[in-house]
Design brief:
The complex is a heterodimer of chains A (72) and B (326). Chain A has helices spanning 24-38, 44-57, 63-70. Chain A has 72 residues and is mainly alpha-helical. In chain A, α1 (24-38) runs antiparallel to α2. Chain B is globular. Helices cover 13% and strands 40% of the residues of chain B. Chain B has 6 helices and 27 strands. Chain B has helices spanning 8-16, 27-30, 102-110, 203-209, 262-270, 284-289; strands at 4-7, 21-25, 38-42, 45-48, 51-54, 58-63, 69-75, 91-98, 121-127, 139-141, 146-148, 152-158, 163-170, 182-184, 188-191, 193-196, 199-202, 218-222, 225-229, 231-234, 241-247, 254-255, 279-283, 302-305, 308-310, 312-314, 318-325. The longest helix of chain B is centred in the N-terminal third of the chain and has 9 residues, at 8-16. By secondary structure, chain B is mainly β. Classes of the chains: A mainly alpha (72), B mainly beta (326). At the A-B interface, α1 of A face β13 of B.
């Protein structure tokens, strides 16, 4: 799994990058976190941490999405 | 593992063997089943192997992985927000909810805000009934032989460390990128006014004026996942537009492209899905609009339901619960 401090994790929440994912729980989680970031109920660091934890758990299922994010 | 339709006698034998079962069937065949490790929900619509089937005599059986530990729980609107905190740290939940009750609406409105909702699979269905002779949908807690019309039942399963659970979906609808953006003024299952392209309009008038087919859902983009909200109807007198799922104020929706060949579109996409699943269901609207009854299809096997649960309430979406080896 990619280190949590890699800058690419933040790409997930960057509207300009508009990354489309394929793993359903990751899609749903990222969308929820984007909304929370928008209303500033969480920080970017908290969002990255939450998504990193989810990706740790679903390493196999998110493999394709990780490639997309880290090859962006 | 995939499920199948069985006779009631066969199901009674399976219950007697102590297996953990998710049972779906008509009320006539589910009622009075013996006590055991099962939860149940009503629907007489199925796809079994290759055909769409309406039956009030058979029961669709999903034999569920019982993992390391199992607990059954009944939920009402006051405690449904505890569904994640009641579940195991690593596991999955199957949730059956009766349609058109407060518990159905409450879960649909709050699920996405529940802390940790996407960390373990929550799959399941909204129970229904025969559309030609509609009776209140029901769910069953087999451990107590109790039937509910206004509460939900769930089975929480603890998985071993080498397994994880997640939901996969297959949605044959695509957002129409030429559609104007639709935004709603409040969360809920109905609206009169909304914003279309930033302009406040009466939604029913807009639908009529633009000849919008309400058999095609509106949808929103969840970072690549298309999430549908289906139209239930339009009240001509009040101008109220109702939906089978909730719309949210903070979400942007678009109209979708219509689907002309449901079976063809499912078949073309099904290859990308994991075919080893614990539980699967599809939507009654796909069954009706796609004319699946009696049709030969390879699309999936499972109950046809009045709402799919894939963490949140989904509409018109084939939904499966998958267990992965880590």
């Amino acid at each position: 799994m990619y280190a949590k401090d890699r800058k690419e994790w933040k790409y997930l929440f960057d509207e300009k990058k508009d990354i489309e994912l394929s793993c359903f729980p990751l899609q749903m989680k990222v969308t929820k976190l984007k909304r929370e970031l928008k209303i500033e109920s969480i920080s970017m660091e908290e969002a990255v941490n939450e998504v990193w934890v989810l990706c740790q758990k679903y390493q196999r299922a998110v493999k394709q999405d990780m490639t997309k994010i880290f090859d962006f | 593992m995939k499920g199948k339709l069985f006779n009631r006698e066969e199901v009674i034998e399976m219950i007697g063997n102590g297996k953990l079962l998710g049972l779906t069937g008509d009320e006539k065949v589910l009622s009075g089943l013996p006590k055991g490790n099962w939860i149940g929900a009503t629907t007489p619509y199925f796809v079994d192997d290759q055909h769409g089937v309406f039956t009030q005599d058979k029961i669709y059986v999903n034999e569920l992985s019982s993992g390391e530990q199992v607990k059954f729980q009944v939920y009402d609107p006051s405690n449904i927000n505890q569904i994640v905190s009641n579940s195991f740290e690593n596991g999955y939940t199957i949730l059956f909810i009766p349609a058109f009750q407060e518990i159905h609406k409450k879960y649909a409105l709050i699920a996405s805000d529940i802390e940790g909702i996407y960390e373990n699979a929550i799959g399941g269905m909204v129970a229904g009934a025969d559309l030609n002779n509609f009776t209140p949908p029901k769910v069953y807690d087999g451990t107590t032989e109790t039937v509910y019309e206004d509460k939900a039942v769930a089975v929480h399963v603890k998985l071993p460390e080498h397994q994880t659970s997640r939901i996969e979906i297959l949605n044959i609808f695509k957002q129409n990128q030429d559609s104007p953006e639709i935004q709603f003024l409040q969360d809920g299952f109905e609206c009169t006014e909304c914003l279309i392209g930033g302009q406040k309009v009466k939604f029913a008038d807009y639908i009529a004026k633009n000849n919008i087919d309400i058999k095609t859902p509106i949808s929103s983009d969840y970072t690549g996942a298309t999430i549908n909200v289906c139209f239930q109807g339009i009240d001509e007198k009040t101008g109220s537009v109702s939906f089978y799922g909730p719309v949210f104020r903070d979400t942007v929706y678009k109209f979708s492209h219509p689907v002309n060949d449901y079976i063809g579109d499912f078949n073309s996409k099904i290859a990308s899905m994991n075919d080893s699943f614990e539980f699967s269901c599809n939507c009654i609207l796909n069954y009706l609009y796609g004319d699946l009854e009696g049709s030969k299809t390879q699309v999936f096997s499972g109950p046809v339901v009045f709402g799919e649960i894939g963490y949140v309430l989904l509409n018109q979406t084939l939904t499966t619960l998958v267990i992965d080896e880590v």
